[in-house]
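Lecture notes, unit on protein representations.

Consider one protein chain, 90 amino acids long.
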Amino acid sequence: MALKSCPCCQGEAIYADLKVGDSLMWQVSCTGCGLSSELDEDKLYTTKRWNTRRETASKRMWITTLAMVVPALSVIFFLLGTLFGVHLSD
């Protein structure tokens, strides 16, 4: 399975194998910005985690955006209603 480019900077992703105790651990890191995955003993699992980061990051970005926009719109509509005397019960 090929590595996808970095979800942050679109840089090239490479593998690093590290000996930790008696175990060989795998990590993926970006040659551009230095973003890296967690260490894991399973290279295929590490690859799958890296390759799905973009989708997960994109979903988190939309949730964060909505979490900021919805309260802001509530405040704006409240202020507009207060300024112009519009009431929901009318």
